[in-house]
Amino acid sequence: MTRYRNLGLFVVLAAIWGSAFMAIKAGLEFFPPVLFAALRYDVAGVIMLVYAVYATDSPLPRSRADWTEVTIGAVFLIAAYHALLFVGETDPAVTSAAAAVIVSLSPVLTSGFARVFLPSERLTPLGIVGLLLGLVGVAVLSELDPSNLLAGGTVAKLLILGAAAAFAFGSVLTRRIDSDMPIETMEAWSMLGGALLMHAISVGMRESFADVVLNTESILALAYLSLAASAIGFLIYFDLLERLGPIEINLVSYVAPIFAALAGWAFLNEVPTLATAGGFTLIFLGFVLLKRGAIRRELRHRFGSGATPTD
């Protein structure tokens, strides 16, 4: 039963996070992009803080290491990632599926950054090939034309690539911090700090609440991103991370684009292109090459030493 429960939650998480790209695309019709992202995490941060108070004995950061981890999370995992992602998705040439596929490069970039900033990890020749495959996948997806780099949504897709890089970089930096803070507390304060930073960026970009259009569609988009994609999604993620480990949970990044494509097609009439499929394939192959050792160990743990696939 536990196996089916984990599988069910995995699919639910992939569906929630994949369809979030469609919700972002839909909501951007009614909100300035960075203000939209900030409002999302105003709501999600408060919900996560309430949950941290309920679920942990340490709902407040206490040490310098705790606050350092929160700062990294706020700057890179929340503010930089979401500001770049939301601005990138304002381009009509960027479909929900394309954005999801570019973001799925994040585990590949995380592995690459880890080899640079974590001394215990080194990038092997095959690992370098994997990293390059992932980057080539983004180039294929972006349909880069050297003669006209500003056409066809290329700049917007590169902004989303920057979002994935910010998330990957922040993930690696947090691993360098020796903090005992519960993950729920870190996420809650990172969300609130990231939201504050995005409000400041929004003001700097001259975005205004006067440009917000409140109607059923805009409220549903904001509610879905705040409650489902952020609050519920992260709670499922934390549960599966503890049960499955980082290798299996990373695969969510490669299932989410399927649901992003389905949601974009169903609600926004977006049709995925061959470039989307080709870019996704190259990024996934890059991930397999980079994480081949961990994947091999995971398979041996799951199916070797007398274990069976139904254990």
UniProtKB/TrEMBL annotation:
GO terms for cellular component: membrane. Residues 9-142, 158-290 form the EamA domain. It is a multi-pass membrane protein. Its main location: membrane. Keywords: Membrane, Transmembrane, Transmembrane helix. The keyword Repeat does not apply. SUPFAM superfamilies: Multidrug resistance efflux transporter EmrE. Signal peptide: none annotated. Coiled coil: none annotated. The chain crosses the membrane at residues 38-55, 67-87, 93-116, 123-142, 154-174, 186-206, 218-237, 249-268, 274-290. This is Transporter. It comes from Haloferax profundi. The lineage of its organism: Archaea, Methanobacteriati, Methanobacteriota, Stenosarchaea group, Halobacteria.
